[in-house]
């Protein structure tokens, strides 16, 4: 679950603009104007329900060291939000198989992703290590190899998911996301109506559509507004604290993300009319929710080539082992 703050700079967003509402003068940020990173693109739903990491039998290590390597790889994959466990290779499971090859005075760990039908979907080279260092039994080396390889494997899984989505006519790569809007609650005055109206207008596009039947929706979106008395404010002018929380839930009831909008306004300035303030809240929330759905569904991810491709990692000498 990822939370995007309306007023605070987040890992994903950092862009602030301002406008003048009908009542008073306040600064309203537009944090969804552009992205400042790709953290939100981390794989949320990889192809495997779980990824089995067998203890390698061709690791050029003894049994104990091979087991350490397997556990390091599984832990590194978990850090990438991929459900990986160490276990025996079995049919019908996604596997991440490691094989280590000698290449002159270096060894190169190769990680292959194998689908439940037994086909190798892709193979990636991990960090090359000198033969001497690999045979030293230094477990820090195995951990570093695993940590370097995990994002590469995660990228492959993301590409596999995207490739499956391309071939599925019902996936969100081939149709708009259907979104059931539960409305806005808790705002004083006409806030619920103004925010909701602008949200619906701003959300509808080629990739997202409002769905009236919740049972047919891919996601449900609900919004709660709270207005509480705040500090006295500058020059003794009282303020109120406004917090708007949008919650996005997938069809299975799992939270896909949140968009939170926070601001302080002149006390009671929103008791009756929200005007441009309400429109800004609805418009900016729609942009944030679109990004949540993009990231959660993976619909913008690049498909993996059918041949799986090949990449090589740069030569790295493990820290502390330089001669």
From TrEMBL:
Superkingdom of origin organism: Bacteria
Region (Disordered): 300-323
Protein name per its UniProtKB record: Lipoprotein
């Amino acid at each position: 679950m990822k939370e995007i703050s309306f007023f605070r700079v987040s890992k994903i967003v950092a862009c602030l603009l301002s406008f003048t509402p009908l009542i008073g003068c306040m600064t309203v940020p537009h944090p969804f104007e552009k992205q400042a990173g790709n953290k939100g693109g981390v794989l949320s739903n990889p192809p495997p329900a779980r990824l089995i990491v067998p203890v390698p039998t061709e690791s050029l290590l003894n049994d104990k060291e091979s087991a350490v390597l397997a556990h390091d790889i599984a832990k590194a994959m978990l850090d990438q939000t991929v459900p990986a466990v160490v276990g025996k290779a079995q049919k019908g499971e996604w596997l991440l198989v490691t094989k280590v090859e000698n290449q002159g005075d270096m060894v190169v760990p190769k990680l292959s992703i194998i689908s439940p039908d037994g086909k190798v979907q892709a193979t990636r080279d991990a960090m090359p290590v000198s033969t001497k260092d690999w045979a030293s039994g230094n477990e820090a080396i195995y951990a570093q190899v695993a940590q370097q390889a995990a994002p590469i494997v995660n990228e492959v899984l993301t590409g596999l998911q995207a490739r499956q989505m391309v071939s599925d006519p019902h996936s969100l790569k081939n149709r708009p996301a259907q979104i059931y809007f539960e409305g806005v609650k808790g705002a004083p005055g006409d806030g619920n109506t103004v925010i909701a109206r602008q949200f619906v207008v701003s959300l509808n596009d080629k990739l997202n559509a409002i769905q009236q039947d919740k049972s047919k929706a891919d996601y449900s979106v609900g919004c709660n507004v709270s207005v509480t008395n705040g500090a006295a404010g500058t020059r003794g002018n009282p303020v109120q604290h406004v917090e708007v929380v949008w919650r996005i839930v997938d069809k299975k009831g799992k939270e896909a993300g949140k968009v939170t909008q926070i601001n302080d306004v002149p006390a009671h300035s929103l008791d009756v009319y929200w005007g441009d303030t309400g429109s800004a809240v609805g418009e900016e929330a729609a942009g944030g929710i679109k990004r949540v759905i993009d990231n959660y569904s993976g619909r913008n991810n690049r498909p993996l080539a059918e041949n799986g491709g090949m990449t090589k990692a740069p030569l790295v000498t493990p820290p502390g082992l330089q001669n």
